[in-house]
Amino acid sequence: MEKVAKGLGVPFFSYDIDLPDQEAKADELVKKYGDWSEDYLIPQIFVETKDGKIKHVFTGYSESVDSTKRHLNNLINSPLFAR
Amino acid sequence: MSEKDARKVAKDLFSLTPNCYGHCKEKGSFEFKGDSMIVQVCPNRYVSRIVTYGHQVDQNQFRKTLRGLVSGLKTVQSGDIRVASRYAWDLGLKRKNDDLILHLAYWTQSYRRTKDERVDRPALFLCSNSDSFFMQPLNSRNRFCKDCRA
After folding, report:
1. CA separation for the pair A70, B17 (Å, rounded)
2. Contact A78 B89 (CB under 8 A)
3. Which of A57, B29, B89, B140 is spaced 20 to 30 A from B148 at the CA atom?
């Protein structure tokens, strides 16, 4: 995703829920805009649009890491991230 | 997006062959039960996951449903359930005005690490012969519920 953001020329932020100082920010984003549950699925991806709106666009697949990779690839190649 | 469409998408999404999680790692399947439940089972009928889906999902109702399956699941908590939104763009679908396709709620057996690591701890299985869930020791090779064994 970092590479995609770089290609689009937009800032990229990543929050690691295993790091206490980043966990709070991740929780806030997921609670406000994402797929929130007490032990929520990761990764979750959000985009901020020009007008400041934040939109949730992806949640990892509980089924398997391979499923998450495959569907993340769909997202990256979708019109959503078209230059 | 209608519930019928959501079901069709879910059918496609869960047509893969998953590896058993928390039991034997053998290749299993996702079985559709009723209107909105999907059960991941292995050849030994161990239940790795139960998923509910729809244009909307009610986590509380799902928790109640899980608790009602067998007495051994009465301790399922809201924190044991995780949710996900699936959009046209991650599913690889071309839709113009309906990007949100469906919601999923997952319950994964053995996901939360427990102090009980015994190989014969009680675990959830799905009968090979009927749609009945039943509890038995994790290391049991039996694939039938009590009624079907009788």
Report:
1. 15
2. yes
3. B29
Q: What is the mean pLDDT of chain B?
A: 90
What is the residue extent of each domain of chain A? 2-81
Q: Which two tokens stand for residue B94?
A: 């071309």
- Chain B: closest CA distance from residue A18 (Å): 16
End-to-end CA distance of chain A: 14
- Which chain A residues have a beta carbon less than 8 Å from that of B18? 63-64
Is A42 part of the contact surface with chain B (CB cutoff 8 Å)?
Answer: no
* Cα–Cα distance list, B119 to B22, B71, B136, B137 (Å): 11, 20, 11, 8
Q: Which tens digit of pLDDT belongs to each residue from B96-129?
A: 766 899 999 999 998 765 667 789 999 999 999 9
Write the Ramachandran bin of B45: left for phi over 0, alpha for psi from -120 to 50, otherwise beta.
left
| Type of residue numbered B38 | I
Q: pLDDT at position B4, please?
A: 78
Q: Is-contact A58 A44, C-beta < 8 A?
A: yes
A71, closest residue in chain B (CA to CA): B90
Q: How far is CA B142 from CA A53, B66, B102, B139, in A?
A: 54, 22, 35, 9
Chain B residues touching residue A39 (CB < 8 angstroms): 79-80, 82, 112
The beta-carbon neighbor of B89 closest among A37, A59, A74 is A74
Mean pLDDT within A30-41:
95
**ipTM given for this complex:** 0.92
- Residue B106 has its nearest CB partner, among A57, A62, A75, at A62
